């Protein structure tokens, strides 16, 4: 798994249940970057789409080093502010990934923002370059991704390691075949430059933004490139820019281990827990289930896929994103442990990778890998990559190999980053609010602490809770502090704790 995303946290419970005023700063924003006048001169032409929403596209250069060359279009959607007076402007959002559709996020989740924000802001989502409807990258088809995700991602010997390397190489080659011209240009720094053009096209003098998970990384690099254009940025569930590509995955695996322990402690308090009477017994039972699926895949009543160890690990990890999903995870584990039936686990895993019932996938997986592989340098070969896997196996025995080996296609990626990006400081920016959740499975709390310190104007808000990201979980303390900051640009006191 190469995913740092919020989509599972915000929408998981629903999916599993089948179910301009005085607040605007008057300082002059950064001037138009050279050669980009025609892009910054655009005005978004909003048209009604899908009920109360409005849609638009904005043109940006594919290669910012050649603004006169090929262009692409960035897809946007907004839910207009409901208030007839007191409108502040646009609240841009990004749900994470990388690769998650910001357009779909706003369509499905915009009304989860507080009534105050809905009254005073247009809630705006966009698909970053390479994602969704914005010049999407194309890689493996549905059967190809089924093979990739079914391949043993915790190899026990050279034969299994070679098989994983072959599938990873095939993944990379398919992206080169389907999207060669776009692959070098889908990285976060370019997506952040696009954001400033979107801001101008929407008519906002400065940027107001809510970014979750990977969206914090995107927001931090936006602030670093355009510090004078920052009005208020909320970075919820932060990614630490100082981590290496494999370091991020090792630490993320540890986060899932922490979340599994928290789930186990909660599970054994219920009479419906299928994993034993103590948290230690429950965690051990999950380990045994993974070993069992490695030796003999679980049954699947939905389709022809075998529920291998990789699908089991992904299903568990997906449900750990959101505490509201824990009852579904208990049920799925009960079927797996008691009956050898992995149908519910693979159904939950499909939510993570956006696999549809007809066997096709959205482009989220392709975009996720494409952005990650060009954002940071990666190890030169599978053997070197395996050293990080060994580290992860020691510190996160259940999730380490699964999470870290998931990034192996980057070793074979045709578009290579030149160097490790300089960590953002956003010198000169207005205060930036960073929110960290203590037991976040996908973006460990230490990352939020780190990012708040790296940003010159970073302010840390801590949520003592479970699940991935904090704001949309509904904690009153987090909601009030965040809403006040977004509406007034005045952050809470650095070090405030909620929950």
TrEMBL record:
Keywords, alphabetical: Hydrolase, Signal
Top-level lineage group: Bacteria
InterPro entries, sorted: AB_hydrolase_fold, Pept_S33_TAP-like_C, Serine_prot/Carboxylest_S33
Domain Peptidase S33 tripeptidyl aminopeptidase-like C-terminal residues, every copy: 397-498
A family per Pfam: Abhydrolase_4
The organism's taxonomic lineage, starting at the top: Bacteria, Bacillati, Actinomycetota, Actinomycetes, Streptosporangiales
Segment forming the signal sequence: 1-23
Family: Belongs to the peptidase S33 family.
Protein name (Swiss-Prot/TrEMBL): Pimeloyl-ACP methyl ester carboxylesterase
Naturally occurring in which organism (per UniProt): Actinomadura namibiensis
Single GO MF annotation: hydrolase activity
């Amino acid at each position: 798994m190469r995913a740092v995303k919020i989509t599972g946290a915000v929408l998981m419970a629903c999916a599993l249940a089948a179910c301009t005023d005085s607040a605007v700063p008057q300082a002059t924003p950064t001037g138009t970057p050279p050669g980009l006048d025609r892009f910054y001169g655009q005005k978004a032409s909003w048209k009604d789409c899908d009920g109360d929403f409005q849609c638009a596209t904005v043109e940006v250069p594919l290669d910012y080093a050649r603004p006169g060359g090929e262009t692409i279009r960035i897809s946007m959607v907004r839910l207009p502010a409901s208030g007839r007076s007191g409108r502040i402007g646009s609240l841009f959002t990004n749900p994470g990934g990388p690769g998650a559709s910001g357009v779909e996020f706003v369509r499905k989740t915009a009304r989860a923002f507080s009534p105050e924000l809905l009254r005073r802001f247009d809630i705006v989502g966009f698909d970053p370059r390479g994602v969704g409807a914005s010049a999407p990258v194309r890689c493996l088809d549905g059967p190809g991704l089924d093979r990739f995700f079914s391949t043993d991602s915790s190899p026990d010997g050279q034969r299994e390691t070679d098989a994983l390397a072959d599938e990873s190489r095939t993944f990379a080659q398919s992206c080169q075949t389907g999207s060669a011209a776009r692959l070098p240009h889908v990285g976060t720094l370019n997506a952040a430059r696009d954001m400033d053009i979107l801001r101008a096209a929407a008519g906002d003098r400065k940027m107001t933004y809510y970014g979750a998970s990977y969206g914090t990384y995107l927001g931090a690099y936006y602030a670093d490139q355009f510090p004078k254009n920052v009005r208020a940025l909320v970075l919820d569930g932060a990614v630490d820019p100082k981590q290496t590509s494999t370091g991020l995955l090792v630490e993320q695996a540890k986060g899932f281990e922490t979340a599994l322990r928290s789930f186990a402690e909660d599970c054994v308090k219920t009479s419906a827990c299928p994993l034993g009477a103590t948290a230690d017994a429950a965690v051990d039972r999950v380990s045994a289930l993974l070993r069992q699926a490695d030796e003999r895949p679980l049954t699947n009543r939905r389709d022809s896929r075998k529920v291998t160890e990789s699908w089991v690990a992904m299903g568990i990890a997906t449900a750990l994103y959101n505490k509201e999903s824990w009852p579904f995870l208990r049920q799925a584990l009960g079927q797996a442990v008691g009956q050898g039936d992995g149908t519910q686990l693979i159904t939950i895993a499909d939510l993570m990778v956006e696999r549809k019932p007809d066997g096709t996938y959205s482009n989220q997986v392709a975009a996720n890998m494409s952005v990650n592989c060009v954002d940071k340098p990666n190890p030169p070969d599978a053997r070197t990559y395996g050293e990080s896997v060994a580290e992860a196996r020691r510190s996160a025995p259940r999730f380490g190999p699964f999470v870290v080996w998931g990034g192996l296609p980057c070793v074979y990626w045709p578009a290579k980053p030149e160097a490790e990006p300089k960590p953002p400081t956003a010198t000169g920016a207005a205060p930036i609010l960073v929110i960290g959740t203590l037991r976040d499975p996908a973006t460990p709390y230490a990352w939020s602490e780190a990012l708040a310190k790296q940003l010159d104007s970073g302010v840390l808000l801590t949520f003592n809770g479970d699940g991935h990201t904090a704001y949309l979980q509904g904690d009153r303390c987090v909601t009030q502090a965040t809403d006040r900051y977004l509406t007034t640009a005045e952050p809470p006191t650095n070090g405030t704790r909620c929950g």
